[in-house]
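Box 3.1 A note on notation
Throughout this textbook, protein chains are presented in two layers. The first layer is the amino acid sequence; the second is a token string describing backbone geometry. Keep the layers aligned when reading.
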Amino acid sequence: MKNEVKSSETVTISKAEYESLKSHCAQLESELNWLKEQLLINKKKTFGSSSERMEDLYAGISLLFNEAELIEDIGNKTAETTVKEHTRKKKTGCFDKLPENIETYTVEHELSEEERKCPECGEEMEVIGKKVTKHLEIIPAKAVIREDVYFTYACRKCHENEADTPVVETPQPNPVIKGSFASAEAIAHLMTQKFVMHSPLYRQEQELKQKGIELSRQTMSNWFITASKLWLEPLYERMKELLLKESVLHADETTLQVLKTKDKPTATKSYMWLYRTSGCCETPIVLYDYRPNRKAENAESFLKEFKGYLHTDGYKAYRGIENVTIVGCWAHARRRFCEALEVLPEAQRKGSTAAIGLDYCGKLYAIEKKMKDKSPKDKLKERQEQAKPLLDAFFAWAKSLRNIAPKSKLGKAVHYLIEEEPYLRRYIEDGRLEIDNNRAERSIKPFVIGRKNWLFANPPSGAKASATAFSVIETAKENNLDPYEYLKFIFTKAPNLKDNESIDILLPWNTPGDCRSKSAPSTE
């Protein structure tokens, strides 16, 4: 049997056809790389860490700017303390601690009279010491009925003398909702459970039912909407007046599904906008604003009285507002280089273009970290001396890059950087400004967490009430108040304000000391 010989056939094509095929292959390769990136990103989102700490971003990468201070900050996981003649490593993990000012009761455990008899001589033994142990008891919330009795008085002598008998009634304070059995404590508790602990109304309904209390979620919702409209909305409007007088603000927005909206499909997204004060403000204010869409007119309407700097994440809706100067967010620029690095095989990451871009971002953040506690004047000076030359080099490097696929993660990172250059540079113009918009992202996070539990709002009035309640609660937390105690104070005091009393006495920084949170204020 003869061996079969396979012959190759040569096909001649024109130069135009060759160029067309070459272009098509390049396009297919670009699409393939893009699909690989998306697959890696989805795997990272599903199974990986979402942390953006610098030590995580720089893992396995040789820093372009190899400064000892930065490496030291990243590497130190333990603190060393000297004890007499040896060095001990101090643990930096979490420790449980029982509060000193918590209510405490004592239970004494004694031997019976028979057990106290001496086993040797039979005489009664005396106490010579004691051992004390502490245990934390958690008592579930208890519901009770408070029955208020207001007495009416009349003069018996005047009645006996058949004179006009004066009748005096015990003053009755205005309730939080007229004609309702709701109390300030009940509404404050239910609101705290929903907006702080993120417990939906149907779960609270089930929990109360287990205690024998039939309180429907519809009733609770009506309480929220009514109490918010009567007492929280006026406070919200006052805080808005004060917010818009500030010279530096932060803004962000996130989605929300509202079911019963007019002239709009149920599946259409609504939005919760957030506006808050910056770190230079002594009295923090955080306000949410429910809107049915993400149009620029929403931000324009809310900020029409504001004049100053506004930190944003790059959304162009904010950029046409009169008298507002936009400050870009370096966290978003850094995040894009981080994603571009993550889609590369680990062996190719070191020294890559994405790693160099990430190193530049790390250097900018290192400068900010070193002057965190300095005055705005000193920050401005050091930013001009240290950050400005670095920014010049960073943008010059980005503009010099060639042959980067525009739809790739790296291409998007470089495009964002160059397009946002005027706004990303702006933070070095004023020492009160911040390098990113993370302050707004931290404030909008509680709403995002809550949204995962209750999923949607029913009517627009409920969404507006939620925005108002969230605003009051998050502002209270920023001012180190206990949300429950603060809401209880508002619902008790607001219905009974006197004519000569201003609503300003309800502002978080003017409230009595018993509204203060018993936990230590958070540190950034």
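Residues 198 and 453 are 7 Å apart (CA to CA). The chain has a mean pLDDT of 85.
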